[in-house]
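Propose amino acids for all 760 sites.
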């Protein structure tokens, strides 16, 4: 363990810890759009610093295969409690690391089976077949496009393998004729409903899920499911085909908004415009997601155990059903990706389980079918029961490392409130707000020591937390950050006490309402982005902030990135994050977007490498010193040309013949304007000019956009002048004072969309 991170973890009263950087993007899992998108490497890094390889872990949430797979690959044994048959099945298949050739062989056997007089593959492809507009050849389209209230599709998406024609093309009469050949839709829907029929209380939810399928994909799915059930094939091959069908069940729903780059539905609501995927192509394409594991991971079903070298023990049920573990199997830690409530996924999992494995497989998810709506209070209660059952099986000081993805204020409140109520005390937290990820470390605490009256004024506690957080970063902060600061303060003061009888129904509202009142108090804070109606979209700064000697957080981060680029000739994003995160722990984790803006401003990608940076040759200290000296000389020369007196060294002033200061020039090579702009007593009758390299334009614009307080300040008499523009002004043969004033505003910093950068 590094000395720096050890220090942060020992200073538990501060609660902050450095954010653990990812090694890679989230694992591209099957059904990944419904799962917590936890980046690769976080779990492994946390475990390697705190738990010995071979020790037992427990994942009481079972929300994604990514967590146990990463832990097992790192040499740990992990017990996973999974009540969801779909996730359990995914974990079993992925752990076996099936090969692409095995999937292709299984799919070929399915395709070669007969449906009447033709091969099944031919029949299934025929359901989607279309004709290329350009060459007239029969082809397989990628998808058909629909509008929610219409009875037929309006377009096709295809890429013709014969002539290369591709894109969105209008629907044809032949396409509609083929669509009308689909069999009895009512029969298919009746069969789909029958396989999940568990009683009157679940029928509405099952019906809603089935309505998310058009007739053609429903016909396709049940044709394939029925055929697989009737095939005489090996158990392993049946499992592989089932995996592909599971992916097709997802691809076949109408929950794919078009056009949209982000399809992560939480509710069973058909979008206004959606795509209907060609499910034969979906079966073929799904192979990639199911073969992401290079090497198999030992996996057993409880009570059989994996080897001491690492592996997964799957318990197909809730943690409360897990009997007391022998002492030798007591876990040393719990880990997990904390899921958001997802009515769409949980309902669909229940329905898919029934379709694929029969009614009995639906039983564990019956409650998902009975409940149609979820709120954060419900989620807090559900999490509380998981925490409580884990607490009953844990020893004193038992650690839990949790990752929250797709973070939101309600989500954070539900997690912290429920965990504290169940006896898991917040020990450390790190928040990467722009990527909506929080990493939290809890430890169990004795019941008696956490009981404390909650009569203390919460607004006083919150006022203290908000002031400390804003002063500590010296720049405005958003709602989630300020809420996290308040929750930390509540936890430290033991005001989120253990509640053995259950979490109170109004627990979340009691936590967030005082914050909302404070953030609406104009005498305490100033709200920016007030055009956003939701309070959660605001950003705040103190109305009467004390003098703060430190630079704003974004400026401090910029300075450290400059140091890192100078220190190491070649450096990756992960190395930059590893250098930055310990310096800015907890709620001050450097945003990835800011790091990217700094790298684009000061660095350049190393040719031939992916995600490796080097300092731009024009950004070396000698080069920039030369530029600054040149700018000083130009400003002095211009003063003489305009008949002004110039005085000063790096901060230059122009004076008229009466000795009155007209202009003050601040010359620097960074985008750190706060040291000039945030200062008391700025003379209002002087033109203040910030002279900087043009390569800072994007970075400065980004920082002004993220810090509206600073943006507001520069609008009161500040001018931006780029090095290159100053050179052009100096080259003019004729120049008057009024012309100079007009010219300095003609090349302001503007945001230009950066090129997409591959970090990994």
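Proposal:
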């Amino acid at each position: 363990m590094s000395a720096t991170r050890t220090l942060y973890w020992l200073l538990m009263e501060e609660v902050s810890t450095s954010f653990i950087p990812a090694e890679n993007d989230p694992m591209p899992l099957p059904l990944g759009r419904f799962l917590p998108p936890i980046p690769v490497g976080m779990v492994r890094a946390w475990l390697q610093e705190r738990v010995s390889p071979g020790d037992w872990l427990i994942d009481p949430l079972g929300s994604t295969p990514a967590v146990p797979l990463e832990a097992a690959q790192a040499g740990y044994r992990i017990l996973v409690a999974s009540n969801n048959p779909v996730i359990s099945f995914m974990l079993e298949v992925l752990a076996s690391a099936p090969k692409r050739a095995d999937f292709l062989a299984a799919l070929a056997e399915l395709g070669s089976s007969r449906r009447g007089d033709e091969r099944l593959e031919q029949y299934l492809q025929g359901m989607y077949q279309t004709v290329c507009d350009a060459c007239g050849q029969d082809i397989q389209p990628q998808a058909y496009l629909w509008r929610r209230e219409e009875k037929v599709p309006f377009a096709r998406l295809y890429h013709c393998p014969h002539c290369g024609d591709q894109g969105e093309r209008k629907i044809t009469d032949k396409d509609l004729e083929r669509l009308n050949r689909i069999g009895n839709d009512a029969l298919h829907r009746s069969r789909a409903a029958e396989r999940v029929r568990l009683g009157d209380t679940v029928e509405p939810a099952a019906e809603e899920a089935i309505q998310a399928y058009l007739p053609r994909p429903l016909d396709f799915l049940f044709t394939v499911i029925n055929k697989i059930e009737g095939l005489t094939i090996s158990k392993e091959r049946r499992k592989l085909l089932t995996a592909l069908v599971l992916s097709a069940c997802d691809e076949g729903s109408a929950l794919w908004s078009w056009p949209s780059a982000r399809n992560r539905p939480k509710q069973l609501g058909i979008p206004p415009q959606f795509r209907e995927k060609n499910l034969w192509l979906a079966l073929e394409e799904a192979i990639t997601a199911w073969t992401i594991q290079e090497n198999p991971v030992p996996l057993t079903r409880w009570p059989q155990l994996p080897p001491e070298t690492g592996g997964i023990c799957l318990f197909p049920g809730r943690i409360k059903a897990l009997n007391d573990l022998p002492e030798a199997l007591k876990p040393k830690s719990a880990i997990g990706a904390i899921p958001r409530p997802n009515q769409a996924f949980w309902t669909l999992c229940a329905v898919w389980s029934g379709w694929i494995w029969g009614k009995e497989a639906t039983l564990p998810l019956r409650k998902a079918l009975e409940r149609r709506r979820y709120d954060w209070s419900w989620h807090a209660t559900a999490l509380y029961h998981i925490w409580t059952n884990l607490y009953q099986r844990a020893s004193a000081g038992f650690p839990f490392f949790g990752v929250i993805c797709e973070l939101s204020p309600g989500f954070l409140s539900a997690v912290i409130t429920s965990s504290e109520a169940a006896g898991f005390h917040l020990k450390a937290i790190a928040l990467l707000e722009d990527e909506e990820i929080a990493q939290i470390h809890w430890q169990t605490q004795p019941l008696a020591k956490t009981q404390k009256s909650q009569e203390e004024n919460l607004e006083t506690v919150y006022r203290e937390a908000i002031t400390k957080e804003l002063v500590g970063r010296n720049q405005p902060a958003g709602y989630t950050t300020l809420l996290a600061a308040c929750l930390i303060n509540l936890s430290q003061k033991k005001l989120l006490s253990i509640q053995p009888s259950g979490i109170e129904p109004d627990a979340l509202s009691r936590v967030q309402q005082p914050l909302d009142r404070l953030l609406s108090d104009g005498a305490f804070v100033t709200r920016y982005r007030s055009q956003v109606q939701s309070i959660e979209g605001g950003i705040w700064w103190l109305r009467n902030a004390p003098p703060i000697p430190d630079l704003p957080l974004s400026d401090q981060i910029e300075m450290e990135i400059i140091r890192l680029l100078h220190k190491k000739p070649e450096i990756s994003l992960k190395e930059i994050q590893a250098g930055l995160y310990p310096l800015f722990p907890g709620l001050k984790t450097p945003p990835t977007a800011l790091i990217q803006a700094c790298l684009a401003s000061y660095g350049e990608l190393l040719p031939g490498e992916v995600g490796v940076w080097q300092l731009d040759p024009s950004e070396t200290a000698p080069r920039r010193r030369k530029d600054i000296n040149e700018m000083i000389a130009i400003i002095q020369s211009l003063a003489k040309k305009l008949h002004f007196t110039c005085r000063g060294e790096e901060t230059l002033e122009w004076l008229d013949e009466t000795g009155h200061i007209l202009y003050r020039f601040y010359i620097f090579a960074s985008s750190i304007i706060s040291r000039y702009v945030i200062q008391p007593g700025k003379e209002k009758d002087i033109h203040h000019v910030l002279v900087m390299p043009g390569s800072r334009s994007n970075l400065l614009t980004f920082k002004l956009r993220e810090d509206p307080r600073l943006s507001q300040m520069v609008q009161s008499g500040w001018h931006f002048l780029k090095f290159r523009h100053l050179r052009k002004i100096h080259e003019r043969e004729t120049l008057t004072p009024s012309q100079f004033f007009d010219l300095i505003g003609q090349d302001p910093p503007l945001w230009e969309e950066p090129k997409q950068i591959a970090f990994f």
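Residues 1-12, 449-453, 754-760 have pLDDT under 50 and may be disordered. The first helix runs from residue 3 to 10.
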